[in-house]
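User: structure tokens for this one?
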Amino acid sequence: MVDDESVNLPPTAKGDPDLILDQSFDADLLYALRATLEAHATHAGLPDGRAMDLVITVHELATNAVVHGAGTGRVRIWRMAGALRCEVSDAGPSLSTRIPRPDADTESLPHTGQVGNAGALPQARQAGDAAREARTPVPDAARWPVQHGHGLWIARFLPDRFTIGSGPEGTVAVADFALPPDGHDAPFGLSRHDQGSHVLLELSGSLGDQAALELATVVRDVVSGEPEPRLVMDLSAVTFWDAMGVAALITAQQQVDGAKAGTMVLTGIRPDFRRRLDALSPAPLTVRDTPEEAARLFRSPPR
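Assistant:
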């Protein structure tokens, strides 16, 4: 996945959205839903890694709708200009009247990790507040358990945009996944340069499952071969990433942190990607704009 700046995903879809999936679900249908989601996401043009990110996100939302919401729900996916829009709704007596239009505005995930509201959701939330004041039971997304590193937390950060809101008839969650630009499938490349004071790794191409394996091997070699591993990882030539790429960088950070006086610095990282890493990484990340700026952190060779 690339960042919002390069995708330029509009907050409101242009053209006529194409509804490619409309499926109800309950507890017995969650397993089958995963296969359906993967097939439709891949056919619509998402690469395998991002298709699996969509599956994880929608399945997690559907599971929470079953376990913590109404017990049943509905998934709809539209293909829009440059993106797939996925909507997960609790079941309700007037479901079709409260689902936001596929061209409703959605907001990018803010840096704080809080979520915005879809264009049609503020009114639903106000109605939900009124119902709660009248002591009418309302399934509320705020009550869905969100713990750092767990499924629903991760699902909120995998899409390019995510919104959620509750009304008197249930909850609506909307997740946008940008379709890939030209050149997203460039093969992964990794080059290592020993700089004396630190090791520089230059990454390029698609940061997915293949990259995760190669990167883990190289980082392990750096950590085992240096008394105080100092690693600079330049991501400026990375064209695409998915959840496996995120996991690879977080794992690399943990490998370096586990070594004596280990330090890892990321450079050339795009703003949206950094927000995801900051949210998903259990440890703080050190980031600089360029490898040259990162090198200034290492004024002398390790002892």
